[in-house]
Amino acid sequence: MGIEFQQFRVAYLGDDGPLPPALEGIDLLIPDGQTVLLTGPSGCGKTTALRSINGLVPGFHEAQTRGGVLVDGSPVAQYTTAELASRVGYVFQDPRSEFFTFDVRSELAFPCENAGIEPAEITRRIDETAAAVGLEHLLGRGLARLSSGEKQKVAIGAALMMRPRILLFDEPSANLDTEALAMLTGVIGSLRARGVTVVVADHRLGYLDGVLDRVVVMDHGRVVTDLGADDIAARDAQWFTDRGLRRLHPPALESRPCTGPIPDGGLHIASARFAHPGHDVLWSIDDLHLPARGVVGVTGANGCGKTTLVRFVLGLLACRGARVRLGGSDWPRRRRTRQCAYVMQDVEYQLLGESVRAELLIGPEPGERTRRRADELLARMGLDALAGQHPLTLSGGQKQRVGIALACMKQAPVICLDEPTSGLDAAAMRALSGLLRQVAEEGALVLVITHDTEFAAETFDHVIRIGDRRMRLEAVTCGPHGGTRQPSTERRHP
Amino acid sequence: MDLITSTAQALSPTHRDTTQAAAPAKPDLRAGLVMIAAMAVESAVVRTGLGSVLATLFALTLCLLLGAARGAWKLGAVYALLLIAQRLCTIGGAIPLVPFLGIALTLVVKAYPIYVTGWLVFRSLPMGEVMAAMQKLLVPGTLLVVLIVVYRYVPTLVGEIRVIRSGARLRHAQPAWRRWVRHPVTQCEHLVVPVLMRTGRIADELAAVAVCKGLDPDARRTALVAPRVQPVDVALAGACVAAVAGLKVLVG
Q1: What are the chain B neighbours of A314 within 8 Å (beta carbons)?
Q2: Any signal peptide, and if so, which residues (chain A) (predicted)?
């Protein structure tokens, strides 16, 4: 039975008629109990394929369809909402907006309440699921205060509450740290052992090594490659690169404690400590020197305080008694906010203009020099062809480039990015890596929060590791292609 | 589920007993609505300033009693500032535009007991209980779903605005006050455009989530924690009604 796509074609409906098809008549049979990865470049149709399995396409997102999708032998369209909800679980791409309630326990209970399950049974399932996903310690907490990795765990838990026979994951790895990825792999592995059909759409594949039965590579709405797990394991790194895919065995981010002193002139943070109101100290810094230029990663487990550290550097968050110096002189909080730049994980929050060019002109003092600089940046970042377009019509990778161009407009000494690779395919990830290195060469300190080790190993000179409520700066020792690379600051100071 | 459980136990070192007594939040939504209605009546029928102040103090005391001390002190401090500002406006009535500000402040101050009570009722009411209580009040299914989406959306909107504002602060070379004084219309546009953008998207996503989680206006729902009207709810609602009546008679 399982899931069956029969010559399925989908074209979303735009304001003036159907858009180019997202799926071009795919045939795919996923038998019961198989664990399948759908992958491929951005826009290849993997999310659309997932949405067709649980009826969001065309039931919710308006689209023209041809052919059909069968779940357990019947067309998806014939199931009622409740029937589908109990058969097919769905973990959404964005853990921030997929919750319907405000606290973890209610969120887990919500789908069961909708199905009219008795409270005693719901309580039993909550305990079981919490143990399965490792969120017992989160049960009493509100959702707003959770880190993105913790939210992802809750989302997976909620999808498991109805005990579905089919579970769909849309980019589940986007915000997860190594430990949470291991949790995800463990959960998928045990679902597979229990015979649940699992379909994952993702760019990253490394974490699924060992639990997959099959990999389906899509491009432009078609299935281009359909391989068994053994076949995939036999391919070398080049095979993945040629198809625009992430690597199956991403390099680890290797680093060692910095040997020589960091040259003066960089960012210096002293005696800062941060605690959420009413909680213990989350992190503290006695003395941290960062280089004046270079790409520095910020890594650590989910919820360890990466985002708060960056918000502190940006001056959005005050730590009493903290001293921050840049290039030897004091750098107070308000001035930091005025001078630093930030590229949010969701760049959309920052896009206000009517066109890409207009976007770059919002913020800095208007004038001829600003306009010239904007044109120059557009050309350099390969955005000049898009200069007249509305920023919100761009693809994810393009929006992010606009975000980085905005940061460059400000000529900020420190540029911070939050999880910039979530949702980016291999090509966009490499382009971003190159762009950040280029921005750093021009004399900016680029701080990047990420869990993506493949991206980190290709991009960072240094890494701030947060663990045991402390921060350590370490020099990255692995290079872009697995070789060793001398970090730029160490070259200057052997 | 055994396999999952065992996998998870291998992975997660922390175990905690999660079996807690599922006590419904207090006050119950129905009692809470009576309390809010009582305060609304107060702001309409009690005419004196003293009466309004006493009603606010009463609502703040209820907050303290129900263990929301932090919020109570904050709300109280804001109230004091508003009162002072309102008095100052009365004194400076001759200055242009100040009377308008005074009128606006008076409206806020008059309705303050309603805000405090509303905050007290909704501050930690889990969604499941709100839905179950409304179902018991025989709110029709479709309306219930709409109300719930609105209820879910309000805090999200507040969060979104906060993110957008911090983005704007980092974006601009000038401090916010100068931007707002010089180009208020442009600034408004720069706040409203992304908010609308996000609103549209969140509304879509929320609705998709509701569909995926099987929220069906016509189906019978159960509640993990069944809301109950208990003596404490009756007492709270009764106290509010009595206080309003008392204020009307004594100082109204």
Answers
A1: 170
A2: none
Bond from prior residue into A31 cis (ω within 30 degrees of 0): no
Instruction: State how many domains chain B has.
Output: 2
Query: Is B5 inside a domain boundary?
Result: no
A268: phi then psi, degrees, rounded to nearest 5? -130, 125
Other beta carbons less than 10 A from residue B202's beta carbon: 19
**Closest listed residue to residue A203, CA positions, set A436, A434, A37, A400:** A37
**Cβ-proximal residues to B195 (8 Å cutoff; 6+ apart), any chain:** B157, B160, B161, B164
Q: Which of A50, A52, A113, A127 to mutate to test the interface with B (most CBs of B within 10 A)?
A: A113
Token readout for B230 is 């208990």
Residue B1 maps to a domain = no
Residues B63 and B134 in one domain: no
B44 occurs within a structural domain = yes
Q: Could you tell me if residue B163 is inside a domain?
A: yes
Q: Coil, strand, or helix at residue A446? A: strand
Supply angle C-alpha B62, B64, B68, rounded to 5.
110
pLDDT tens figures, B137-186: 888 888 888 888 888 888 788 888 888 888 888 887 777 788 888 888 88
Of A127, A154, A191, residue with least CA distance to B3: A191
The 3 state secondary structure assigned to A275-312 is ECCCCCEEEEEEEEEECCCEEEEEEECCCCCHHHHHHH
For residues A407 and A415, the answer to whether their CB atoms sit within 8 Å is yes
Residue with the larger pLDDT of the pair B97 and A37: A37
The CA R_g of chain B, rounded to the nearest whole Å, is 23
Enumerate the β-bridge partners of residue A290: A267
Give contacts of B212 with chain A, Cβ < 8 Å: 54, 56, 85, 90, 92
B33 is in which domain, residue-wise?
25-125+227-252
Is the pLDDT at A207 greater than 60? The verdict is yes
Q: Which domains does chain A have, with CATH numbers?
A: 3-242 (3.40.50.300), 255-340+412-492 (3.40.50.300)
Residues in Cβ contact with A492 at an 8 Å cutoff, skipping those fewer than 6 apart: A263
Ranking A113-122, A423-432, A443-452 by mean pLDDT, the lowest is: A423-432
Work out the mean pLDDT of chain A and round it to a whole number.
Answer: 86
Structure tokens at A218: 């899509």
